[in-house]
Design a protein that fits this description.
- The chain has 97 residues and is mainly β.
- It has a domain of 56 residues.
- 9% of the residues lie in helices and 24% in strands.
- It has a five-stranded antiparallel beta sheet, covered by helices on one side.
């Protein structure tokens, strides 16, 4: 199986710095090869080089992120109802007093 192109990143050769393709191999390694200066690099999954190369890679297949949803304005809060007032207090143990 051929390596799958996932994007491109700047060449890590200090004398070059041109965009170079980044591919994902069948064994999940990243392969970064510059066509201008012939700089080659493999990165195993779980290593710092893999993480750094993925952070610098501009993904070819990723579409632009969708716009953030607009938050709806919250509904106004209705005022709390007034508590019912009793005419007078009656003692439940002695209602006639």
């Amino acid at each position: 199986m051929a390596a799958e192109l996932i994007g491109e990143a700047k060449c890590w050769n200090p004398r070059c710095g041109k965009p170079a393709p980044v591919k994902l191999t069948a064994t999940k390694k990243l392969f970064h090869r510059c066509d201008w200066c012939d700089f080659k690099q493999y990165a195993d999954p779980g290593t710092m080089v893999y993480r750094d190369l993925m952070a610098e890679t501009t993904r070819a297949a990723d579409p632009a992120p969708p716009p953030a949803p607009v938050a709806a304005e919250p509904a106004p809060i209705a005022p709390a109802p007034e508590p019912k007032k009793r005419a007078s207090w009656t003692n439940p143990m002695n209602p006639g007093a």
